[in-house]
Design goal:
four-stranded antiparallel β-sheet, 15% helix, alpha+beta, single chain
Amino acid sequence: MTTTYMPRPIPPRVLKELRTTDDAGRAPAPFTDEEGGAPLRCCLRHSAPGERIALVSYAPLRRWAAETGADPGAYDEQGPVFVHADDCPGPADPATLPFTNAHRVLRRYSAEGHILGGHLTDTGFLAALREAFTDPEVAVVHVRAVEYGCFLYEVRRG
């Protein structure tokens, strides 16, 4: 049996909230990205030069916990993410695992919201993701950038 791992961008409902007040209680400050290359969490691609984007504070585990009834306790955290400043259509190919061509950390969480470990990978991203879900306790995996530790997207157990 083949399992498909679907990356989950920040949902449109949440993006609407973040574009008003982010998870740190601040209003976003949109700007024009002159250079491009920012990893956008709304459509899971890099920004193009000239796009209007915003850097907002996002609490992915807190929002997942509110949806699922988990209690992440001390594992709750918030951090910076880039999103389009205005509505966007979301990922062009929702089945493609983006941002896998660099060192990444796959952080594993239980259904209760507690961290179960992590895995650093630079090659073999899909194998590392498959391995994470071999543990039946893993409910969700956060894919994070190594250089800043920023949240990129989540993958949930199907």
